[in-house]
Amino acid sequence: MKHIIAFAGSNSKTSINKQLATYAANLVDNVKAEVLDLNDFDVPLFSVDLETSMDGQPENAHKLLNKIKAADGIIISLAEHNGAYSAVFKNMFDWMSRIESKTFFGKPMLLMATSPGARGGQSVLTIAEDRFPRHNANIVGVFSLPKFKDNFSEGKINDKELNNQLIAELDKFKNAL
């Protein structure tokens, strides 16, 4: 059985991106879906000096990277803070890329974002679509959910058109596994 991981690029305990990633992962049939929480992979703020004094990278960066390496596919929903990655995601990404520059190991990836606003995290998606392939991401689908509070309730997308868009992107993801 294929194994996928899903996580949000957020450390909010009530992360709307984690809710979206969880929903998407649960729609993938015939796989073992594991939803991760970046709070379980706490790492210090990246700096070269700290890396040198630690004689390497933090164990939790290795643990998350190993989860990515062991998975058959990745679903990630990025939080957008001031038009870019959240600090917690960027920090983890920095640490992991010091361990393995090809951070995503060519795994099929469904890249998503949501936000309370009408653009649904489009700015962070644009950044990730440009950057992640340089780290061996195989982005096979992209989905943006605008106006989270209006379009998501009771653990699912309640707008039929938006839900159909997600299902179409998930089909691409499933076919790439």
From TrEMBL:
Top-level lineage group: Bacteria
Keyword field contains Ribonucleoprotein: no
Pfam families assigned to the protein according to its UniProt record, in alphabetical order: FMN_red
InterPro entries xref list: Flavoprotein-like_sf (IPR029039), FMN_Rdtase-like_dom (IPR005025), NAD(P)H-dep_reductase (IPR050712)
GO molecular function: FMN binding; oxidoreductase activity
Keyword entries, A-Z: Oxidoreductase
Cellular component annotations (GO), alphabetically ordered: cytosol
Keyword Oxidoreductase among UniProt keywords: yes
Residue ranges of every copy of the NADPH-dependent FMN reductase-like domain listed in the record: 4-141
Enzyme class: oxidoreductase
Record Gene3D superfamilies: 3.40.50.360
EC number from the UniProt entry: 1.-.-.-
Protein name, UniProt field: NAD(P)H-dependent oxidoreductase
Organism name: Mangrovimonas cancribranchiae
